[in-house]
Automatic annotation (TrEMBL):
First and last residue of the signal peptide: none
One GO molecular-function entry: sterol binding
Alphabetical keyword list: Lipid transport, Lipid-binding, Transport
Organism: Microthlaspi erraticum
GO cellular component: cytosol; membrane
InterPro entries assigned to the protein according to its UniProt record, in alphabetical order: OSBP_sf (IPR037239), Oxysterol-bd (IPR000648), Oxysterol-bd_CS (IPR018494)
GO biological process assignments: lipid transport
Record's protein name: Oxysterol-binding protein
Biological function: May be involved in the transport of sterols.
Family statement drawn from the similarity comment of this UniProt entry: Belongs to the OSBP family.
Amino acid sequence: MKRHVVLAKPFSLEDEKDSENTTSNLIQRILSLFKNVRPGSDLTNFQLPPQMNIPRSQLQCYGEMVYSFNGQDLLGECCRREQPIARLKSMVTWNISTLRPLIFGMAPYNPIIGETHHVSHGHINVLAEQISHHPPVCALHATHEKENIDVMFCQYFTPKFRGAYVEVEVKGKRVVKLLNQGETYEMNNPKLLMTFLPATGAHWAGKIGIKCPETGLEAELQLPSDSFFSRFSGNNKRAIKGKIFESSSRKQLYEIFGHWDRTVTAKNLKTGELEVIYNASENIAKLKTPIVKNLQEVSETESAMVWSKASEGIMSTDWEKAREGKRYVEERQRESSRQREVSGQSWTPKHFSVVRAGKDWDCVPLQPSVPKAPIVVPL
């Protein structure tokens, strides 16, 4: 079988203008999909037609959060700062940068079990693996070679239909270790909301907490819901506000405010000094398309190879080819599942050890660092 990899450019701020004029046909198509779905229903296994897929797997989208920046090394900056408070501010900046624009009515492919995504960007190497399909759980390990940083995601999402909107709760953990500093930063994930009425939209909402037990510092960020009225005023759309404080005394050190798709500012509450800590136009605009550096080293389970036919169909608007590509992947997964069931075998992830306690998942990478990948993002 011919090895074939299809890579699409990450969706970024510069692409957003082209997607803002959502057609009435798309809205009607989306609403028709939920015609017979009851409010409160779990949409985990809900299948979208290829016209509503972006040509990337969810694994690739998770990876982009870590590595895909416009020539900036926001992750490495977290370790280069001399003072603990400065390192936490940099961690806040990196966390905000993981918030990417969303396209209403569009979603990535649901990864199949065993699917992987291995990519490098500068000193950052990322390896993600789909370790479960029901529920869909992703494990991600990234290492920064130069600054000795370790990133670990183990997360899963539960989408539910709420009548006027779909709520996607992203559960699990994100942990970043600055090994040279002996510091661990634990953080959670915001929710994704896709609203149908009274106005269409897709946005992040909820609270994000970032905590470092070693320094006794933490941050809390709030993403207000993008209400119907705020869409017209523009004041709260993609707004972010929060604070940095001492864990023990709750003494507030910095106030955080701004818009995550524009600029975010930190105010030193002792001196009154203002500092722009994040500028979206400098970091997540004009993102570059990954390239294949060595095709022979690309794994057969790589997302860009697994979904290559479907992605080709979507990018060329050949919807029959896209449907065939998706159908082939999904049928192959079902057949593999049947074979494991008949033989009595359970799935074992290739790159992670997994511990499950009830509904909670914990993942540990089998290797201490992620090697260079055959797929790279140009600097």
